[in-house]
Protein backbone atom coordinates (compact mmCIF):
# COMPACT_ATOMS: atom_id res chain seq x y z
CA UNK A 1 0.00 0.00 0.00
CA UNK A 2 2.91 2.36 0.59
CA UNK A 3 3.66 2.26 -3.17
CA UNK A 4 0.49 4.27 -3.76
CA UNK A 5 1.64 6.85 -1.22
CA UNK A 6 5.09 7.07 -2.82
CA UNK A 7 3.55 7.61 -6.27
CA UNK A 8 1.09 10.21 -4.95
CA UNK A 9 3.90 12.18 -3.34
CA UNK A 10 5.92 12.08 -6.57
CA UNK A 11 2.96 13.45 -8.50
CA UNK A 12 2.36 16.41 -6.17
CA UNK A 13 5.80 18.03 -6.09
CA UNK A 14 4.65 21.47 -7.24
CA UNK A 15 1.99 21.67 -4.54
CA UNK A 16 4.56 20.73 -1.91
CA UNK A 17 7.01 23.36 -3.11
CA UNK A 18 4.29 26.00 -3.07
CA UNK A 19 3.37 25.02 0.48
CA UNK A 20 6.99 25.23 1.59
CA UNK A 21 7.10 28.71 0.10
CA UNK A 22 4.15 29.70 2.30
CA UNK A 23 5.87 28.31 5.40
CA UNK A 24 9.23 29.95 4.63
CA UNK A 25 7.40 33.23 4.04
CA UNK A 26 6.48 33.41 7.73
CA UNK A 27 9.62 34.74 9.52
CA UNK A 28 9.11 32.74 12.72
CA UNK A 29 12.33 33.79 14.49
CA UNK A 30 11.98 32.76 18.14
CA UNK A 31 15.02 34.54 19.57
CA UNK A 32 13.95 38.10 18.71
CA UNK A 33 11.04 39.69 20.59
CA UNK A 34 10.10 41.80 17.58
CA UNK A 35 9.51 38.62 15.54
CA UNK A 36 7.63 36.67 18.21
CA UNK A 37 4.20 37.37 16.69
CA UNK A 38 5.36 35.57 13.55
CA UNK A 39 6.05 32.42 15.59
CA UNK A 40 2.43 32.54 16.75
CA UNK A 41 1.40 33.09 13.12
CA UNK A 42 3.36 30.00 12.11
CA UNK A 43 1.70 27.95 14.87
CA UNK A 44 -1.74 29.01 13.61
CA UNK A 45 -0.82 28.20 10.02
CA UNK A 46 0.42 24.72 10.88
CA UNK A 47 -2.51 23.94 13.15
CA UNK A 48 -4.88 24.86 10.31
CA UNK A 49 -2.97 22.77 7.74
CA UNK A 50 -2.87 19.66 9.93
CA UNK A 51 -6.52 20.03 10.86
CA UNK A 52 -7.40 20.03 7.15
CA UNK A 53 -5.86 16.58 6.71
CA UNK A 54 -7.76 15.04 9.61
CA UNK A 55 -5.57 15.57 12.66
CA UNK A 56 -6.97 16.70 15.98
CA UNK A 57 -4.78 19.63 17.00
CA UNK A 58 -4.59 21.63 20.20
CA UNK A 59 -2.39 24.64 20.94
CA UNK A 60 -0.90 24.43 24.40
CA UNK A 61 0.38 27.66 26.01
CA UNK A 62 3.82 27.38 27.63
CA UNK A 63 3.94 30.50 29.76
CA UNK A 64 6.07 33.64 29.48
CA UNK A 65 9.74 34.54 29.26
CA UNK A 66 12.04 37.51 29.69
CA UNK A 67 13.72 38.48 26.44
CA UNK A 68 15.50 41.67 25.48
CA UNK A 69 14.09 43.45 28.53
CA UNK A 70 10.51 42.42 27.77
CA UNK A 71 8.17 39.86 29.31
CA UNK A 72 6.41 38.14 26.44
CA UNK A 73 4.38 35.00 25.80
CA UNK A 74 6.09 31.84 24.72
CA UNK A 75 4.65 30.45 21.48
CA UNK A 76 2.32 27.49 21.98
CA UNK A 77 3.28 23.88 21.41
CA UNK A 78 1.08 22.02 18.93
CA UNK A 79 -0.17 18.64 20.09
CA UNK A 80 -1.82 16.58 17.37
CA UNK A 81 -3.20 13.13 16.87
CA UNK A 82 -4.68 11.04 14.10
CA UNK A 83 -5.88 7.50 14.84
CA UNK A 84 -6.39 5.66 18.14
CA UNK A 85 -6.65 2.03 17.07
CA UNK A 86 -5.38 -0.15 19.96
CA UNK A 87 -4.30 -2.78 17.44
CA UNK A 88 -1.80 -0.38 15.83
CA UNK A 89 1.52 0.94 17.08
CA UNK A 90 1.58 4.60 18.12
CA UNK A 91 4.42 6.73 16.80
CA UNK A 92 5.22 10.19 18.16
CA UNK A 93 6.87 12.63 15.76
CA UNK A 94 8.56 15.86 16.80
CA UNK A 95 9.57 18.99 14.91
CA UNK A 96 9.94 22.74 15.38
CA UNK A 97 8.50 25.63 13.43
CA UNK A 98 10.75 28.44 14.68
CA UNK A 99 13.88 29.47 12.79
CA UNK A 100 17.18 31.25 13.23
CA UNK A 101 17.43 34.99 12.45
CA UNK A 102 18.21 35.90 8.84
CA UNK A 103 18.76 39.13 6.92
CA UNK A 104 19.77 39.53 3.30
CA UNK A 105 22.59 41.77 4.53
CA UNK A 106 24.06 38.75 6.35
CA UNK A 107 25.26 37.53 2.97
CA UNK A 108 22.22 35.81 1.50
CA UNK A 109 21.97 35.76 -2.28
CA UNK A 110 18.20 36.26 -2.04
CA UNK A 111 15.63 37.36 0.54
CA UNK A 112 15.84 34.68 3.26
CA UNK A 113 12.08 34.57 3.89
CA UNK A 114 11.14 34.17 0.25
CA UNK A 115 11.61 30.66 -1.11
CA UNK A 116 13.72 30.56 -4.27
CA UNK A 117 13.62 27.45 -6.45
CA UNK A 118 16.85 27.18 -8.43
CA UNK A 119 15.64 24.77 -11.10
CA UNK A 120 19.14 24.35 -12.55
CA UNK A 121 20.42 22.81 -9.32
CA UNK A 122 17.12 21.59 -7.88
CA UNK A 123 17.72 23.57 -4.69
CA UNK A 124 15.06 25.33 -2.63
CA UNK A 125 16.60 28.29 -0.79
CA UNK A 126 14.99 29.94 2.24
CA UNK A 127 15.28 30.19 6.01
CA UNK A 128 13.68 27.13 7.58
CA UNK A 129 13.58 25.14 4.33
CA UNK A 130 15.59 22.31 5.89
CA UNK A 131 15.53 23.35 9.58
CA UNK A 132 12.80 22.37 10.25
CA UNK A 133 9.84 23.44 8.14
CA UNK A 134 10.55 21.13 5.21
CA UNK A 135 10.57 17.99 7.40
CA UNK A 136 7.42 19.06 9.29
CA UNK A 137 5.65 19.53 5.97
CA UNK A 138 6.85 16.06 4.99
CA UNK A 139 4.67 14.61 7.75
CA UNK A 140 1.79 16.86 6.65
CA UNK A 141 2.07 15.62 3.08
CA UNK A 142 2.07 11.99 4.20
CA UNK A 143 -1.21 12.56 6.06
CA UNK A 144 -2.65 14.50 3.13
CA UNK A 145 -1.74 11.69 0.71
CA UNK A 146 -3.60 9.15 2.84
CA UNK A 147 -6.66 11.37 3.01
CA UNK A 148 -6.71 12.08 -0.72
CA UNK A 149 -6.26 8.39 -1.56
CA UNK A 150 -8.85 7.28 1.00
CA UNK A 151 -6.33 5.16 2.91
CA UNK A 152 -6.04 4.59 6.64
CA UNK A 153 -2.71 5.29 8.29
CA UNK A 154 -0.86 2.06 9.14
CA UNK A 155 -0.12 3.42 12.64
CA UNK A 156 -1.59 5.84 15.14
CA UNK A 157 0.32 9.11 14.81
CA UNK A 158 0.86 11.75 17.46
CA UNK A 159 2.94 14.87 17.03
CA UNK A 160 4.54 17.54 19.18
CA UNK A 161 5.67 20.64 17.29
CA UNK A 162 7.25 23.57 19.13
CA UNK A 163 8.19 27.15 18.36
CA UNK A 164 11.21 27.57 20.66
CA UNK A 165 13.73 24.92 19.63
CA UNK A 166 16.17 27.52 18.33
CA UNK A 167 15.95 29.29 21.68
CA UNK A 168 16.32 26.46 24.17
CA UNK A 169 12.90 24.78 23.95
CA UNK A 170 11.59 26.95 26.80
CA UNK A 171 8.62 25.31 28.51
CA UNK A 172 8.51 22.14 26.41
CA UNK A 173 10.20 19.76 28.85
CA UNK A 174 7.64 20.60 31.53
CA UNK A 175 4.81 19.98 29.06
CA UNK A 176 6.19 16.59 28.02
CA UNK A 177 6.59 15.48 31.62
CA UNK A 178 3.09 16.69 32.53
CA UNK A 179 1.56 14.81 29.57
CA UNK A 180 3.36 11.53 30.22
CA UNK A 181 0.13 9.88 31.38
CA UNK A 182 -2.12 12.14 29.31
CA UNK A 183 -1.66 13.00 25.65
CA UNK A 184 1.63 11.09 25.42
CA UNK A 185 0.36 7.90 27.03
CA UNK A 186 0.66 4.83 24.84
CA UNK A 187 3.51 6.07 22.63
CA UNK A 188 5.51 3.08 21.38
CA UNK A 189 8.42 4.94 19.75
CA UNK A 190 9.55 8.41 18.71
CA UNK A 191 10.76 9.63 15.32
CA UNK A 192 12.43 13.03 14.84
CA UNK A 193 13.34 14.52 11.47
CA UNK A 194 15.47 17.53 12.42
CA UNK A 195 19.00 16.67 11.36
CA UNK A 196 21.00 15.90 8.23
CA UNK A 197 22.87 13.26 6.30
CA UNK A 198 26.53 12.85 7.12
CA UNK A 199 27.45 13.77 3.53
CA UNK A 200 25.59 14.69 0.36
CA UNK A 201 24.93 11.34 -1.30
CA UNK A 202 24.11 8.65 1.28
CA UNK A 203 21.24 8.73 3.80
CA UNK A 204 21.73 7.94 7.45
CA UNK A 205 19.87 7.19 10.66
CA UNK A 206 21.01 8.94 13.83
CA UNK A 207 21.15 7.40 17.30
CA UNK A 208 22.93 10.13 19.29
CA UNK A 209 23.17 13.90 19.70
CA UNK A 210 25.54 16.25 21.46
CA UNK A 211 24.11 18.62 24.05
CA UNK A 212 24.86 22.33 24.30
CA UNK A 213 25.78 24.64 27.15
CA UNK A 214 25.84 28.36 26.28
CA UNK A 215 27.82 30.97 28.22
CA UNK A 216 28.06 34.76 28.51
CA UNK A 217 31.08 36.63 29.92
CA UNK A 218 30.47 40.33 30.58
CA UNK A 219 33.45 42.53 31.40
CA UNK A 220 32.59 46.02 32.68
CA UNK A 221 34.87 48.94 33.41
CA UNK A 222 34.31 52.67 32.71
CA UNK A 223 30.89 54.20 33.28
CA UNK A 224 30.68 55.06 29.56
CA UNK A 225 32.51 54.48 26.28
CA UNK A 226 35.81 56.36 26.13
CA UNK A 227 38.01 58.00 23.48
CA UNK A 228 41.15 55.93 22.95
CA UNK A 229 43.19 59.04 22.22
CA UNK A 230 42.47 60.35 25.70
CA UNK A 231 42.18 57.17 27.75
CA UNK A 232 44.11 54.56 25.76
CA UNK A 233 46.87 53.18 28.00
CA UNK A 234 45.30 54.90 31.01
CA UNK A 235 42.50 52.50 32.00
CA UNK A 236 42.01 48.74 31.98
CA UNK A 237 40.00 48.13 28.81
CA UNK A 238 37.10 45.64 29.00
CA UNK A 239 37.65 44.43 25.43
CA UNK A 240 41.29 43.59 26.12
CA UNK A 241 40.34 41.63 29.24
CA UNK A 242 37.55 39.76 27.45
CA UNK A 243 39.66 38.75 24.47
CA UNK A 244 42.39 37.60 26.82
CA UNK A 245 39.96 35.33 28.68
CA UNK A 246 38.28 33.98 25.53
CA UNK A 247 41.68 33.16 24.01
CA UNK A 248 42.33 30.87 26.98
CA UNK A 249 39.23 28.71 26.45
CA UNK A 250 40.21 26.70 23.36
CA UNK A 251 43.22 26.30 21.07
CA UNK A 252 43.16 26.81 17.28
CA UNK A 253 43.38 23.00 17.04
CA UNK A 254 40.10 22.69 18.94
CA UNK A 255 41.55 21.50 22.26
CA UNK A 256 39.39 22.63 25.19
CA UNK A 257 41.66 24.19 27.83
CA UNK A 258 39.18 24.13 30.72
CA UNK A 259 40.03 21.40 33.29
CA UNK A 260 37.19 19.02 34.08
CA UNK A 261 35.61 18.96 30.61
CA UNK A 262 37.43 16.32 28.57
CA UNK A 263 37.84 14.18 31.68
CA UNK A 264 34.09 13.43 31.61
CA UNK A 265 34.17 11.76 28.18
CA UNK A 266 33.76 7.96 28.07
CA UNK A 267 36.75 5.99 26.70
CA UNK A 268 36.60 4.90 23.06
CA UNK A 269 36.13 1.16 22.47
CA UNK A 270 37.37 -0.79 19.45
CA UNK A 271 33.80 -1.69 18.48
CA UNK A 272 32.75 1.95 18.54
CA UNK A 273 35.75 3.03 16.49
CA UNK A 274 34.74 0.54 13.79
CA UNK A 275 31.41 2.37 13.44
CA UNK A 276 33.31 5.46 12.30
CA UNK A 277 35.64 3.45 10.05
CA UNK A 278 32.79 2.13 7.90
CA UNK A 279 30.86 5.38 7.50
CA UNK A 280 30.59 6.61 3.92
CA UNK A 281 32.32 9.93 4.37
CA UNK A 282 35.26 11.93 3.08
CA UNK A 283 36.90 15.22 3.97
CA UNK A 284 35.49 16.61 0.74
CA UNK A 285 32.03 16.35 2.35
CA UNK A 286 33.17 18.83 5.02
CA UNK A 287 34.99 21.00 2.50
CA UNK A 288 31.87 21.15 0.34
CA UNK A 289 29.68 22.06 3.32
CA UNK A 290 32.05 24.81 4.52
CA UNK A 291 33.15 26.05 1.11
CA UNK A 292 36.76 25.82 2.26
CA UNK A 293 39.65 23.51 3.09
CA UNK A 294 40.02 24.39 6.75
CA UNK A 295 39.62 21.08 8.58
CA UNK A 296 41.79 20.69 11.67
CA UNK A 297 42.77 17.16 10.65
CA UNK A 298 43.03 15.22 7.39
CA UNK A 299 42.02 11.96 9.07
CA UNK A 300 38.44 10.85 8.36
CA UNK A 301 37.86 9.00 11.64
CA UNK A 302 39.36 11.83 13.71
CA UNK A 303 37.04 14.33 12.03
CA UNK A 304 33.98 12.16 12.52
CA UNK A 305 34.70 11.61 16.20
CA UNK A 306 35.40 15.32 16.69
CA UNK A 307 31.94 16.02 15.34
CA UNK A 308 30.03 13.21 17.03
CA UNK A 309 31.61 11.77 20.19
CA UNK A 310 33.90 14.46 21.61
CA UNK A 311 32.96 17.85 23.10
CA UNK A 312 33.84 21.07 21.32
CA UNK A 313 34.05 24.71 22.38
CA UNK A 314 33.16 27.48 19.90
CA UNK A 315 33.44 31.27 20.25
CA UNK A 316 30.37 33.02 18.84
CA UNK A 317 30.60 36.76 19.25
CA UNK A 318 31.17 39.89 21.28
CA UNK A 319 28.20 42.08 22.16
CA UNK A 320 28.86 45.76 22.78
CA UNK A 321 31.90 46.00 20.51
CA UNK A 322 32.05 48.26 17.47
CA UNK A 323 31.11 46.07 14.52
CA UNK A 324 30.15 48.47 11.72
CA UNK A 325 32.26 49.27 8.62
CA UNK A 326 34.91 51.95 8.96
CA UNK A 327 37.11 53.14 11.83
CA UNK A 328 35.89 54.15 15.27
CA UNK A 329 38.43 54.73 18.03
CA UNK A 330 36.15 53.95 20.93
CA UNK A 331 36.99 52.00 24.08
CA UNK A 332 33.79 50.07 24.93
CA UNK A 333 32.67 50.43 28.53
CA UNK A 334 31.14 46.95 28.66
CA UNK A 335 31.42 43.94 26.38
CA UNK A 336 29.87 40.46 26.49
CA UNK A 337 31.59 37.47 24.97
CA UNK A 338 29.50 34.48 23.95
CA UNK A 339 30.62 30.87 23.58
CA UNK A 340 29.22 27.37 23.84
CA UNK A 341 30.34 23.85 24.65
CA UNK A 342 28.84 20.91 22.79
CA UNK A 343 28.51 18.11 25.34
CA UNK A 344 28.51 14.37 24.72
CA UNK A 345 26.92 11.46 26.64
CA UNK A 346 28.43 10.84 30.09
CA UNK A 347 29.01 14.58 30.55
CA UNK A 348 27.07 16.28 33.34
CA UNK A 349 25.63 19.71 32.51
CA UNK A 350 26.10 21.12 36.01
CA UNK A 351 29.66 19.85 36.22
CA UNK A 352 30.40 21.57 32.91
CA UNK A 353 28.95 24.86 34.16
CA UNK A 354 30.87 24.63 37.45
CA UNK A 355 34.13 23.87 35.64
CA UNK A 356 33.73 26.79 33.23
CA UNK A 357 32.81 29.24 36.00
CA UNK A 358 35.75 28.27 38.20
CA UNK A 359 38.20 28.45 35.32
CA UNK A 360 36.99 31.80 33.97
CA UNK A 361 37.02 33.45 37.38
CA UNK A 362 40.50 32.10 38.13
CA UNK A 363 41.88 33.26 34.77
CA UNK A 364 40.35 36.70 35.25
CA UNK A 365 42.06 37.08 38.63
CA UNK A 366 45.38 36.37 36.93
CA UNK A 367 44.90 39.44 34.72
CA UNK A 368 45.14 41.81 37.70
CA UNK A 369 42.49 43.99 36.08
CA UNK A 370 40.38 46.52 37.98
CA UNK A 371 37.43 45.76 35.72
CA UNK A 372 34.73 43.33 36.80
CA UNK A 373 33.50 40.15 35.15
CA UNK A 374 30.02 38.61 35.28
CA UNK A 375 29.42 34.96 34.38
CA UNK A 376 26.03 33.79 33.07
CA UNK A 377 24.78 30.70 31.27
CA UNK A 378 21.63 29.28 29.72
CA UNK A 379 20.10 26.02 30.92
CA UNK A 380 22.11 23.33 29.13
CA UNK A 381 20.51 21.11 26.50
CA UNK A 382 21.66 17.63 27.45
CA UNK A 383 23.22 15.04 25.12
CA UNK A 384 21.41 11.86 24.13
CA UNK A 385 22.41 8.47 22.78
CA UNK A 386 20.06 5.53 22.23
CA UNK A 387 22.85 2.96 22.60
CA UNK A 388 26.56 3.82 22.74
CA UNK A 389 27.58 0.18 22.15
CA UNK A 390 25.79 -0.28 18.84
CA UNK A 391 27.31 -2.44 16.09
CA UNK A 392 28.48 -0.89 12.84
CA UNK A 393 26.23 -3.29 10.94
CA UNK A 394 22.88 -3.27 12.73
CA UNK A 395 20.63 -1.87 15.39
CA UNK A 396 18.21 -4.47 16.69
CA UNK A 397 15.29 -2.36 17.95
CA UNK A 398 12.24 -2.65 15.69
CA UNK A 399 11.99 1.13 15.37
CA UNK A 400 15.49 1.33 13.89
CA UNK A 401 15.04 -1.72 11.69
CA UNK A 402 11.85 -0.16 10.29
CA UNK A 403 13.81 3.00 9.48
CA UNK A 404 16.61 0.95 7.87
CA UNK A 405 14.16 -0.98 5.67
CA UNK A 406 12.29 2.16 4.68
CA UNK A 407 15.51 3.90 3.69
CA UNK A 408 16.59 0.92 1.61
CA UNK A 409 13.25 0.91 -0.21
CA UNK A 410 13.30 4.63 -1.01
CA UNK A 411 17.02 5.18 -1.64
CA UNK A 412 18.20 1.69 -2.59
CA UNK A 413 21.00 1.63 -0.01
CA UNK A 414 21.33 0.68 3.65
CA UNK A 415 21.98 3.92 5.55
CA UNK A 416 24.90 4.72 7.81
CA UNK A 417 24.23 4.75 11.55
CA UNK A 418 25.53 8.04 12.91
CA UNK A 419 25.65 10.32 15.89
CA UNK A 420 25.08 14.01 15.26
CA UNK A 421 27.14 16.99 16.34
CA UNK A 422 24.17 19.28 16.85
CA UNK A 423 21.63 19.42 19.67
CA UNK A 424 17.89 18.86 19.99
CA UNK A 425 17.24 19.52 23.70
CA UNK A 426 13.94 17.63 23.97
CA UNK A 427 15.26 14.29 22.64
CA UNK A 428 16.56 13.02 25.98
CA UNK A 429 13.34 14.14 27.66
CA UNK A 430 11.28 12.02 25.27
CA UNK A 431 13.52 8.99 25.80
CA UNK A 432 13.59 9.23 29.59
CA UNK A 433 10.04 10.41 30.25
CA UNK A 434 8.25 8.07 27.85
CA UNK A 435 10.70 5.19 28.38
CA UNK A 436 10.64 4.34 24.69
CA UNK A 437 12.99 4.15 21.73
CA UNK A 438 13.89 7.36 19.89
CA UNK A 439 15.51 7.73 16.47
CA UNK A 440 16.35 10.55 14.10
CA UNK A 441 15.41 10.10 10.44
CA UNK A 442 16.92 13.03 8.54
CA UNK A 443 15.54 14.57 5.37
CA UNK A 444 18.27 17.06 4.42
CA UNK A 445 21.93 16.89 3.41
CA UNK A 446 25.08 17.98 5.21
CA UNK A 447 25.50 21.00 2.92
CA UNK A 448 22.03 22.46 3.53
CA UNK A 449 23.47 25.33 5.56
CA UNK A 450 21.03 25.28 8.47
CA UNK A 451 21.65 28.33 10.71
CA UNK A 452 23.79 29.81 7.93
CA UNK A 453 23.30 32.04 4.91
CA UNK A 454 21.59 30.56 1.84
CA UNK A 455 19.96 27.73 3.78
CA UNK A 456 18.45 25.25 1.33
CA UNK A 457 16.94 21.84 0.86
CA UNK A 458 17.34 19.91 -2.38
CA UNK A 459 14.04 19.16 -4.10
CA UNK A 460 15.04 15.50 -4.37
CA UNK A 461 15.58 15.32 -0.60
CA UNK A 462 12.33 17.14 0.07
CA UNK A 463 10.32 14.71 -2.05
CA UNK A 464 12.21 11.48 -1.33
CA UNK A 465 12.42 12.47 2.32
CA UNK A 466 8.64 12.76 2.40
CA UNK A 467 8.36 9.35 0.75
CA UNK A 468 10.77 8.00 3.36
CA UNK A 469 8.63 9.25 6.25
CA UNK A 470 5.54 7.59 4.77
CA UNK A 471 7.35 4.32 4.01
CA UNK A 472 8.79 4.30 7.54
CA UNK A 473 5.27 4.24 8.99
CA UNK A 474 4.41 1.15 6.94
CA UNK A 475 7.61 -0.58 7.99
CA UNK A 476 6.81 0.22 11.62
CA UNK A 477 3.39 -1.36 11.18
CA UNK A 478 4.92 -4.58 9.84
CA UNK A 479 7.80 -4.69 12.34
From TrEMBL:
Gene Ontology MF: a single term: metal ion binding
CDD domains from the UniProt entry: M20_dipept_like_CNDP
GO BP terms in the entry: proteolysis
Domain Peptidase M20 dimerisation residues, every copy: 208-366
Keywords: Hydrolase, Manganese, Metal-binding, Metalloprotease, Protease
Assigned protein family: Belongs to the peptidase M20A family.
The protein, known as: Peptidase M20 dimerisation domain-containing protein
The species this protein was found in: Malassezia cuniculi
Amino acid sequence: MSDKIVAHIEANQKKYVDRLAEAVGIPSVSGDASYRHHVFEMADWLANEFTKVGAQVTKRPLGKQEIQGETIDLPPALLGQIGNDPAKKTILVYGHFDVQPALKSDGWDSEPFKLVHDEATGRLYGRGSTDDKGPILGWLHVLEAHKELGLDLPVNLKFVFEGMEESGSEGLEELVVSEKNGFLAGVDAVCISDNYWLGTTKPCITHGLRGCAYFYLTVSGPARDLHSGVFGGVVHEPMTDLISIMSRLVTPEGKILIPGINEQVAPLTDAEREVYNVMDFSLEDINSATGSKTTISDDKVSMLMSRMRYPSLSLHGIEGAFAEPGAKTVIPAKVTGKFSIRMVPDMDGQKVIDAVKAYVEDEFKKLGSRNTIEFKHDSPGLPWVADPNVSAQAYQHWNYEAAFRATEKVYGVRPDLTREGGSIPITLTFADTLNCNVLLLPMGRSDDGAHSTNEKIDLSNYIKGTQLLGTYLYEVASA
